[in-house]
Amino acid sequence: MKLTIFNGSPRGQESNTKILLDSFLEGFESPENEYKIFYLIENEIIKNVNRFINSPNVILAFPLYTDAMPGIVKDFIEKLGVNKKETVNASVGFMVQSGFPEAYHSRCVERYLIKLSRRMHWNYQGTLVKGGVEGIKNRPGWMNRKLFKNLERMGEIYSQDRRFDPGTIKNLAPSERFSPVKLIFVKFLMKTGLLDSFWNQQLKKNQAYEKRFARPYKE
Amino acid sequence: MRICILNGNPEESRRHFDDYLGELKECLDRSSHQTSLLDLKQKNIEQCRGCFACWVQNPGRCIFKDDMEIVCKEVINSDLLIFASPVIMGFTSALLKKTQDRFIPLILPYIELDQEECHHKKRYHNYPKLGLIMEKEEATDSEDLDIITDIYKRLALNFKSELVLTTTLATTGKELANEIDHL
Fold it and tell me: What is the CATH number of the domain that holds B163?
């Protein structure tokens, strides 16, 4: 099976989206499978449209930027729209990851992607929605183990059945919104200031902590 | 009221869209609003790279020194911010989206609970109310408009604001200005 992946993260090779994709690909890899990854931020838009046209199986992955797809991903979609006829019947799956922990933040853009697939007459494979991904690189290995295991499993099933497995997708995005119990926990965590320290450490390292509330554009 | 209109029309050839916003601005200014109409296609705007320098290095400012300096300043000092765009492939234009992506210096990195969801904290005391003007494309249906509206409602929540106006070019500039007068 041949698979073409478009990573729509503006962070490109340094993206958390890449980390998720790498894990998915570990499960997908086998002697019969081939894949190629392209980064939309590298600005090869015409080439990327042609790559899409020539691919039977596509995954478009991106981070949630201001409640939707990043500008570069929307740009890519607009260019694909111009070439609608050539992309008909492509099998397309999506991955949307966010810094916010709840899956709920990404549901509107998921609806958009479903509608887009219908508009383009693509064979919609599903959308993996994953929250709480910011800072994933700094976490101890055990914290990511379950995530990576599920992603590998998803890649494995995809390589066998050519579809995004709804069960694994559900496993990966367990918390739609905070449950009452989790809400108490989150409130407590916020009071401790532990969540702020992720940012404060970086601010201090950059000698910018004192300026953290700056309002440079206020008239 | 101080009003900022972001014109997200990417194409010079779609003249009627720009003309519509020009007329709207005239009507608004006549009702003694102070309106700035920013034509995004004439501006130099980089895609946000998610580097978070605007949160942890030089708080409140992007490392790209491009026209977003002007846009951010207009946006945060207005009472009403209107996003205007033709619907392209079921959403507002990439040009407008790219501009919105660069709004993150206007909020803080810190997270708080709002409506029992995680959202970023305010950087500024006041944020403009939001409005949305869309021009339907041939294939645009009510589902598309619902999806776009819902996404902008989410944006409003993250932007410490609310979406107070959603409309299409079917409303004339004069009617719309009248509606804005009554907000």
Answer: 3.40.50.360
